[in-house]
Queue: 2 jobs
Job 1
Amino acid sequence: MSTRMQPLYVLSGNSERTRGGDAQSSNIRAGKAVASAVRTTLGPRGMDKMLVDSSGNVVVTNDGATILEEMDIEHPAAQMIVEVAQTQEDSVGDGTTTASVLTGELLAYAEDLLDDDLHPTVIVEGYNEAARLAQEAIDEQVLDVELDDDVLASVAESSMTGKGTGDVTADVLAHHVVDAVRAVHDGSGRFDPDDVRILTRTGASSSATELVEGVVIDKERVNDGMPRTVEDAAVAVLTTKLDVREGEADTEYTISSVDQLEAAIEAEDAELRGYADALADAGVDVLFCTKKIADRVQDRLAKHGIVAFESLKSSDARAIARATGAKQLGDVTDLEAADFGHAERVSIRRFGEDELTFVEGGEAAKTVTLLLRGGTEHVVDELERAINDAVDVTVAAIDSGGVVPGAGATEVAIAEYVRSHAGGVEGRKQLAVEAFADAVEAIPRTLATNTGMDPIDAVVELRSTFDREGIAGIISEGRTGTIGDPIEAGVFDPAAVKREAVTAATEAATMIVRIDDVIAAK
Ligand code: ADP
Ligand code: MG
């Protein structure tokens, strides 16, 4: 009896399988390719990318996370780098390019080590060991400075440099950002991102950007007869429409005569008037409604001198409720004064073509709005991304332990620290630890390249300056750069950005290196 071995199919015929070295090198290549796509945007002299999607929409940006998100990446390993950028964006809000470039470099060095027959698990162990050393080095780099407004503004500014900010300097914006964060966050308690709102408006140059203490919404009054300004305002926030209840007209009245029709209309009118009267009786001055307000209700509200807004975005309604202390009400029966919020002033102001509504001096919570201006949508969009990063790093610096020197100096220090401890690591793992140090140095190397310097000369000089002075970064100056002290130049990054970049990059790179089998559905 011949027992012929039957092939064992565990995969459907519809999947494709890549194994061993092939899988590794294809993953590594994909990862490196993605990282190098964002490399040229790093730092103050970084370039922008223009991304055009299949329907022709254009995004011009310098923001690593945005670029990767818009690139529509399909390769699964490349997708992991996109996730690194997203993790970085979600957890600290900045450093996305740094984290992506670092991941790409860790992969590139891993490829060399694999070629030298280092086992993937040895590389993974070495990288993890080195990442632990890197965190120690970052701790040592945290500056012993008081986080006053100037230092925070420097942090905010260095997160924005290289991003297009129109005709306003990053320095001016940085102060707006610090004022905004300081207004709502004193470092105790949790920072609520909703407290710093951003509203963009084209039609003026970006230097017209301003900080408003309050909530600004992109809405006009429903009726021109309503007041433009209300001081000391009782504010109601409503999440239901003010209109005749659906179905009522046809189910409850069967209309067969003119009299009946008039009676029906009168009943409707009375219902609608009743809404406005109830609000007026309860003492409401300003009504924000997330749904429609019927014309007849609008007219009646106007007669009562109440200012009303309809079809608010729910995020706007939430912000107003939060700032003024108003409850979000589901109907207008049984209104009570305790349900209303309070604001020092609600006013409507003209901005170019249209009008914006300002709710200032809310009694419940401090909320500020950065009103960003720019000539075109592309300018304000990029400005918004820059400001978002700046708000995040300012909060990160206040919340989670301080700032480190920027401009590549912290990475130089990490590389030196890791290298100097590599000797203590046994066996071939040491090679991976050293490779990690070289990979981290890619950040200053890339900053140097993007600044128009020779990267190899720059690294040599960075190392020797670091040996001598204990600190060395790439200070960009006009069209080129010099090696110098970022603290003197006022370039700081939050320590949290570096910590997260090291963690996220190491996790992704080691995960990719460990894969030796790719099974993909066709
Ligand atoms: P990321 O997405 O990683 O934040 P950026 O393009 O914002 O990328 O570049 C951040 C890097 O640029 C950081 O290492 C930061 O220290 C550095 N940097 C910022 N401002 C300056 C400056 N004026 N001179 C040199 N380096 C700077
Ligand atoms: Mg940045």
Note: Residues 41-44, 46, 64, 94-98, 158-159, 161-162, 406-408, 447, 474-476, 491, 493 surround adenosine-5'-diphosphate (ligand 1) (CB under 6 Å).
Job 2
Amino acid sequence: MTPFSNRITKLFNIDYPIIQAGMIWASGWRLASAVSNAGGLGIIGSGSMYPDVLREHIRKCKAATNRPFGINVPLLYPDIDKHIEIIIEEGVQLVFTSAGNPKTWTNILKEKGITVVHVVSSSKFARKSEEAGCDAVVAEGFEAGGHNGREETTTLVLIPSVVDAVKVPVIAAGGIATGRQMLAAMVLGAEGVQMGSRFVASEEASSHINFKNVVVNSREGDTQLTLKQLTPVRLMKNEFFKQVQEAEQKGATVEELNALLGRARAKKGMFEGDLAEGELEIGQVSALLDSILPAGDIVKNVWKEFTDGLANPVKKF
Ligand code: NDP
């Protein structure tokens, strides 16, 4: 497959503008290095890792690939100072920040020569990210799994708005798992795509096999955005989701919802495979997935479908 060249492939020094989202409990060094070795950009999701675990994953990723890879840092992470220190010490070159103010860490990272990308769900936050000095933004729409924006703007509306709002390159995310979806995003002005759910259903993802199986067996309408009073999050509609719905219908307070959520629900669901009581964070696009594949094949298939689609973009019936 011929490498592609645009601002995103040049910024990250990769062959194809396909980025694997940094996801808690799913994207460790195995997944990140497999995606990077296939010519995309692999990202280690640091949100579920204690600092010493993050360091181990960075070192293993460096040993498994000589291609660039990045780290996703959710800015809500409790020990974020330690994560940033490790990222700098280990010489990581690319950081994707999310869920917080891009002004807080961008300068510190950029002073160390690190490329910084921030994940946004609105044009307003895209502009803030550009002002903060970010090199690119990921514009993530309502369809996305896990943490989500409050304004519920869909990818189809968000991408052209963000592309108009900033000069830095825009990476589209939320609801993208196929080459034709990638093509649609690029037609709207994105210069790359970030995919999460597609890579959860990969052989190298560290998520539990029970979770992967639920993802590939799910249907349209099986996910919903919930917990809007706390942090909005898109979940698979399982037993835990129903408990949250019932509590919200009865008018539960923030304290009551926090008590119901408890601690480590995400780990219970996505890493330990408790499909009833765990939190299962996944995007709407899971409905289109039907197989668990090697991550390298995902990159190749998406790229092939994208290039085939580029040659013949409108389906003829
Ligand atoms: P909880 O407070 O429910 O639980 C914390 C979880 O994080 C535990 O499972 C714990 O592992 C693990 N953990 C890793 N490092 C630390 C640390 N330094 N201190 C405490 N716990 C740690 O949080 P969540 O599981 O809901 O979220 C964890 C993190 O992931 C947050 O920073 C959050 O912002 C981020 N997140 C990111 C998402 C994304 O889309 N990128 C989506 C959802 C969450 P153990 O059980 O082994 O102690």
Note: The chain has two domains: 7-207+289-311, 218-285.
